[in-house]
Design a protein that fits this description.
Elements lengths: L14 H9 L3 H13 L7 H13 L3 H13 L7 H12 L4 H13 L7 H13 L3 H13 L7 H13 L3 H13 L7 H12 L4 H13 L7 H12 L4 H13 L7 H13 L3 H13 L7 H12 L4 H13 L7 H13 L3 H13 L7 H13 L5 H9 L4 H18 L2
Helix pairs in contact: 1-2, 2-3, 3-4, 4-5, 5-6, 6-7, 7-8, 8-9, 9-10, 10-11, 11-12, 12-13, 13-14, 14-15, 15-16, 16-17, 17-18, 18-19, 19-20, 20-21, 21-22, 21-23
Length: 421
């Protein structure tokens, strides 16, 4: 904690004496109590009491306390949630040129929290905080330059601010530097440099960086390929609740990559990821239940998981859900609903769905038979090298008059340009 001096643990021999001094308005006693209750030093954790003493200190003009009580109001921790009060206290601290307050105000403008969303104002405040040495503000300036938010896009300037924040051990900036090097954006592409930046953030416990570093080991990018190291970093990220890492760790257990194959462990990690709404994990669980891998086959459970992922626009899940409705597996058989999901998956560019949709129109199942539409979707699938599409396309071609064939081919070209691989 910066700002007014707080009492050390050695000075806190008598908590009651500390409270007495805080009640008398001794600022450093108020700040010490607030910090004590918030950080659980000596076992006194009570976020409500922490908020009370931060508020007392804030009212005495402590910028540090003003920032913290503002943050507590913003999140509704230990005190009633109020964006208005949060902004009020951030502004008070900002008038004292407090970098944390300036950065917090910038964030509120950027996200429209208690203030009208304004990227230009956000950029200006981040810039002030960055000049005062605020690492988070420097990262956010990099982000705004990288994405052209409130300022003209400039990867060169984004790199400058990301680099400054990264050297201050800001994990988000280190991750951003790794991504730029991995993709070769604004710098020469270098998997080795990417790994080094990911590692810096990963070793500080940043889950997203641990996940990315795991991916580099899994693929042998910038480091020797090593499934065991990949699993190690995935585990660290997964244990922090990072859904993508939980999903990948589930796959490692499912297929025995870098770890002993264990279906039960795989399902446990996939369930954790799926519970957070990660659609790939939801889809994978659908496949597991549909195939009965490590669990008894359960078409109802499979359909439930496919539906969750399908509603998030995941094409593979949409396709499998379509098939379940088409065949009446775990759901009531319904060709019309199946057709609807086939269309969604096909328009998302999923090749098996495009082929399947062509067959549906050719057979008139759940829809009016339409050889023109059948040909056009089979054309898309054939153009993307679906192995059976060309044979089906030739069969449908025989059903079309020359004028219809021209129409179907033109429609297929348009669909291929829009939805083809």
């Amino acid at each position: 904690m910066s700002g007014s001096k707080t009492f050390s643990i050695a000075e806190m021999k008598d908590i009651s004496a500390l409270i007495t001094q805080a009640k008398k308005g001794v600022l450093r006693a108020q700040l010490t109590l607030a910090n004590l209750y918030e950080s659980d030093k000596a076992g006194f954790f009570d976020i409500g009491l922490a908020a009370l003493w931060y508020l007392e200190a804030a009212q005495q003009g402590s910028a540090v306390a003003q920032v913290r009580i503002g943050e507590l109001y913003l999140d509704g921790l230990g005190i009633g949630k109020s964006q208005k009060e949060a902004i009020n206290w951030f502004r008070k601290a900002a008038t004292q040129n407090n970098a944390d307050a300036l950065s917090n105000l910038a964030w509120c403008y950027q996200k429209g929290l208690g203030l009208k969303q304004n990227n230009k104002r956000s950029f200006s405040l981040y810039h002030k905080a960055a000049k005062l040495g605020h690492a988070g503000a420097r990262y956010n300036l990099g982000y705004m330059y990288a994405n052209g938010l409130g300022v003209s896009q400039s990867i060169r300037k984004a790199l400058k601010w990301y680099g400054q924040a990264a050297k201050m051990r800001n994990v988000k900036a280190q991750l951003a530097m790794g991504l730029l090097y991995e993709r070769g954006v604004g710098v020469d592409k270098s998997a080795i440099e990417a790994v080094e930046w990911y590692r810096k953030a990963a070793e500080q416990g940043y889950a997203k960086a641990q996940y990315n570093l795991a991916g580099m080991y899994a693929g042998g990018h910038g480091v020797p390929q090593d499934d065991y190291q990949a699993v190690n970093w995935q585990q660290l990220a997964a244990r922090q609740g990072y859904s993508r890492a939980q999903y990948n760790l589930g796959l490692c257990h499912l297929y025995g990559r870098g770890i002993v194959q264990d279906n039960a462990e795989a399902i446990e990690w996939l369930l954790k990821s799926a519970a957070k709404g990660y659609r790939k994990a939801q889809y994978r669980l659908g496949k597991i239940y549909a195939e009965g891998r490590g669990v008894p086959g359960d078409a109802v459970a499979a359909a439930r998981w496919f539906r969750l992922a399908a509603r998030q626009g995941y094409a593979k899940a949409q396709y499998h859900l379509a098939r379940q409705f088409s065949e009446g597996l775990g759901v009531g058989q319904d060709d019309a609903i199946a057709h609807n999901w086939y269309v969604k998956a096909a328009k998302a560019g999923y090749l098996p769905a495009q082929y399947g949709l062509g067959l549906i129109y050719a057979g008139g199942r759940g829809v009016q038979q339409d050889y023109v539409k059948a040909y056009s979707w089979l054309f898309v699938a054939a153009a993307s090298n679906e192995p059976n599409a060309l044979r089906s396309l030739k069969a449908v071609k025989k059903k079309l008059e020359q004028e219809q064939l021209v129409e179907a081919a033109q429609a297929g070209e348009r669909l291929s340009l829009k939805y083809g691989l």
